[in-house]
């Protein structure tokens, strides 16, 4: 549930405004709320100083709170075309589409937002148009990575461009605020092209129905699955509104290839078993999603039978282990096979976040004076800081929600400078 604030010369710039799902408001509490976000009171109480809101990409943990919180900020939003399309659809659902000013920034574009000059750099991740931000002020420059990885064969969108990073490395960079999600993993994250080949080899030999659970925002994965359906004599259907909405946005934004087809999910149940390839929501065991309905044999469009295969092309988000295992057990009780990443040597999922070698590359390209690790638990951020040190970064600062990081003129950290807590949202 990202909500970052950069302050300079009496103004603030907000970067991302996201949500999380089915989490407690207080760590350790057994009671959970369906939708959770960061409490925006600190900036909402001084919204006249908020120059603008920048959204780095369209994942829920970066964009999901905007429709709920925007009235508290009443600030213009800056983002790239695909993310703007997703945001407009969300705003329309709550009746805000005509009220919110959205500045659509071209890829590799830039904008002056109050005291901040912001440049967008398109990297690679598990959704179209993931952007790093180069934020320049009179006091210093910050490189905010957002969510990223290095993928030279990403299936859709442009490949990772090292020359962009090298170009910005020629500027004085006072701090890199960097993704730590996979900092404990050695080596290099895989490519979406590797995942395509692994899924193809896995599905090619199947005789029955195949259902794939994956995140709806991973357009590259959906394109790969639709192509695999065509190559294996199957028809691809998308089961779940979020999947259908994302593909519609991808088509509007030019990210869905013209030669890749999907069929209406209402037709998939009438096909022979060996012609079915369905993509379904609910890879994290969500109780109302399509995979759970399929496991309970409570889906209008498709019924699974013994020896059909349910394939999980998604990571297990920490905290969801019990829900996913409960879902797997329900399938097994009906004789339906499941396949997760730890069950096979084939690459059926790749992460959207950088492993250790990629972090080293980023620091070596940018050569910042300071590293500020974000995302993940404390051990992830500590490892990120260690990698930065080994890569020649003179200093790192790690902290917690509510801490104030001073970047210039003298780096420092003020603990608990802002009251940070969570609040629940209602749909």
TrEMBL record:
Cited Gene3D superfamilies: Metallo-hydrolase/oxidoreductase, Ribonuclease Z/Hydroxyacylglutathione hydrolase-like
- Domain Metallo-beta-lactamase span(s) in chain numbering: 1-199
Q: What start-end ranges are recorded for coiled-coil regions in this protein?
A: none
Classification via SMART domains:
Lactamase_B
Give the Gene Ontology MF terms in alphabetical order.
exonuclease activity; metal ion binding; RNA binding
The alphabetized UniProt keywords are: Exonuclease, Hydrolase, Metal-binding, Nuclease, RNA-binding, Zinc
UniProt-listed SUPFAM superfamilies: Metallo-hydrolase/oxidoreductase
Top-rank lineage group of the source organism: Bacteria
Q: What is this protein called?
A: Ribonuclease J
What is the scientific name of the source organism? Maribrevibacterium harenarium
Upper taxonomic lineage: Bacteria, Pseudomonadati, Pseudomonadota, Gammaproteobacteria, Oceanospirillales
């Amino acid at each position: 549930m990202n909500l970052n604030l950069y302050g300079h010369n009496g103004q603030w710039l907000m970067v991302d405004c996201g949500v999380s799902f089915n989490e407690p408001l207080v760590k350790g509490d057994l009671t959970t709320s369906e939708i959770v976000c960061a409490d925006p009171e600190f900036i909402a109480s001084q919204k006249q100083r908020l120059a603008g809101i920048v959204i780095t990409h369209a994942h829920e943990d970066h964009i999901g709170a905007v429709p709920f919180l925007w009235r508290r900020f009443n600030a213009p939003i800056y983002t790239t075309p695909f993310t703007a399309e997703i945001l407009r659809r969300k705003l329309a659902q709550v009746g805000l589409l005509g009220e919110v000013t959205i500045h659509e920034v071209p890829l590799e574009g830039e904008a002056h937002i109050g005291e901040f000059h912001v440049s967008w750099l398109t990297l690679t991740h598990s959704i179209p148009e993931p952007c790093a931000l180069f934020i320049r002020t009179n006091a210093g420059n910050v490189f905010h990575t957002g969510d990223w990885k290095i993928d030279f064969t990403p299936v859709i969108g442009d490949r990772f461009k090292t020359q962009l990073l090298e170009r910005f490395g020629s500027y004085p960079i006072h701090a890199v605020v960097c993704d730590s999600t996979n900092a404990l993993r050695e080596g290099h994250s895989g490519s979406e092209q590797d995942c395509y080949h692994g899924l193809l080899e896995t599905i090619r030999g199947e005789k029955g129905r195949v259902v794939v659970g994956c995140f709806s925002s991973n357009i590259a994965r959906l394109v790969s699955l639709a192509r695999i359906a065509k190559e294996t004599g199957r028809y691809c259907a998308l089961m779940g509104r979020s999947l259908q909405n994302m593909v519609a946005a991808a088509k509007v934004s030019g990210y869905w290839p013209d030669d890749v087809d999907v069929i209406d999910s209402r037709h998939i149940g009438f096909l022979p078993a060996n012609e079915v390839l369905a993509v379904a929501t609910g890879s994290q065991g969500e109780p109302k999603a399509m995979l759970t309905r399929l496991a309970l044999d409570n889906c209008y469009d498709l019924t699974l039978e013994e020896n059909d295969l349910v394939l999980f092309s998604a990571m297990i988000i920490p905290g969801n282990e019990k829900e996913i295992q409960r879902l797997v057990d329900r399938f097994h009780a009906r004789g339906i096979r499941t396949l997760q990443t730890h069950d096979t040597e084939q690459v059926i999922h790749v992460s959207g976040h950088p492993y250790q070698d990629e972090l080293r590359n980023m620091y070596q390209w940018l050569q910042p004076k300071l590293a500020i690790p974000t995302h993940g638990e404390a051990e992830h951020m500590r490892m990120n800081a260690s990698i930065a040190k080994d890569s020649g970064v003179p200093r790192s600062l790690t902290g917690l929600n509510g801490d104030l990081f001073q970047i210039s003129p003298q780096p420092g950290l003020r603990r608990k400078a802002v009251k940070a807590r969570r609040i629940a949202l209602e749909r």
